[in-house]
Design goal:
By secondary structure, the protein is of the alpha/beta class. It has a single domain (3-29, 46-294), classed as Rossmann fold, CATH 3.40.50.1820. Helix content is 32%, strand content 17%. The strands form two sheets. Strands 1-4-7-5-8-9-10-11 form an eight-stranded mixed sheet, sandwiched between helices. A three-stranded antiparallel sheet has the order 2-3-6. Helix 5 (149-159) links the parallel strand 8 (142-147) and strand 9. Helix 1 packs across helix 2 and helix 3 (116-130) crosses helix 5.
Length: 302
């Protein structure tokens, strides 16, 4: 990544840090299946865990020239915790320099298990779409980005947006929850051997998940022609989530004739975020910007 981009992101991050963030409660009517005995949320060292009150935090609005595109960002962490700083706030700050208005999702994890995270991400899409005018975004340009287990959650939104498990009976269920595009960073995709990330599967589905649950949440099995256009970024050096996860999803997208682009780099371990010094891997934001621009997502919305 060029030094000028890093400098810009640091500058923007400093200015955004001085502004009070807009925090949106996802479930003002009450969190579905709320649990009173899991204790307080834990926050520290750039991570969040033990979440019981899901929210969206708006980072921005986009700097200088908001173009109407919005991205919901799902930080990774194995469905055990969320790397909110590295894979949430940092991505949002970068996207804001492109005119994209970003929202970092704080979602329920292992304390709830499936389908709580799916309900949270789909509610986030529905909420932004229903309040698009308020946030100065285009309801037809709402994407979901995620890393690692957050990538699994983002891909869940793109494949299970009509699944009954993602509904709670709320009036907002009537709003479409289908994202308009996906950006997946070293994502967990499969819940099946040999590509599975066992920790994410256990946190999401429990120690002994049913074959039906494994099949449903192996997202390469859930791709259809309705799955939104997708960008995938992964590395050979990833020793935590095998690169085969992205390959399987890309193959499924290609079979379903869904527009997709995939960048597989040599260097950069799992959770690389936007680190410098990783050769071509550090330039992934440039490739992502090109992809967004090519899809017309960085032009001013009409």
């Amino acid at each position: 990544m060029k030094k000028t981009l890093l400098t810009l992101i640091l500058s923007v991050s400093a200015s955004l840090a001085n502004a009070a963030p807009t925090v949106i409660q996802l479930w003002p009517e009450g969190v579905p299946g709320a649990k009173a005995n899991i204790g307080p949320e834990k926050i520290g060292d750039g991570y969040n865990s033990n979440v019981s009150e899901p929210t969206l935090t708006m980072v921005g609005p986009a700097v200088d020239h908001p173009n109407g595109t919005a991205v919901i960002i799902c930080p990774g962490g194995g469905y055990v915790r969320m790397a909110t700083a590295r894979e949430g706030d940092q991505y949002a700050t970068w996207l804001s320099t492109l005119g994209v208005t970003s929202f970092v999702l704080k979602y329920r994890m292992q304390e709830y298990g499936h389908p709580a995270p799916l309900q949270d991400v789909l509610r986030a899409v529905r909420m932004l779409r229903s309040r698009a005018a308020e946030f100065n975004i285009n309801p037809a340009r709402i994407g979901v980005m995620g890393s690692s287990a957050g990538g699994h959650l983002a891909a869940s939104a793109g494949t299970l947006f009509d699944n009954p498990a993602g509904r709670t009976g709320a009036a907002m269920d009537a709003v479409s929850a289908r994202p308009d595009f996906l950006m997946l960073m070293y994502p967990v995709i499969s819940m099946q051997e040999p590509a599975v990330h066992a920790g994410s599967r256990k946190a999401l589905l429990g120690a002994t998940p049913s074959p039906e649950a494994i099949q449903l949440m192996s997202l390469e099995k859930q791709v259809t022609a309705a799955t939104p256009p997708t960008l995938l970024i992964h590395t050979q050096a990833d020793q935590a989530v095998p690169v085969e996860n992205s390959i399987l999803f890309y193959q499924a997208l290609t079979k379903a004739k869904v527009p997709a682009e995939m960048y597989l780099f040599e260097h950069g371990g799992h959770g690389m975020g936007m680190r410098d010094g990783l050769g071509a891997s550090s330039l992934w934001p440039r490739r992502a910007e090109e992809w967004l621009r090519d899809r017309g997502l960085l032009t001013q919305a009409k």
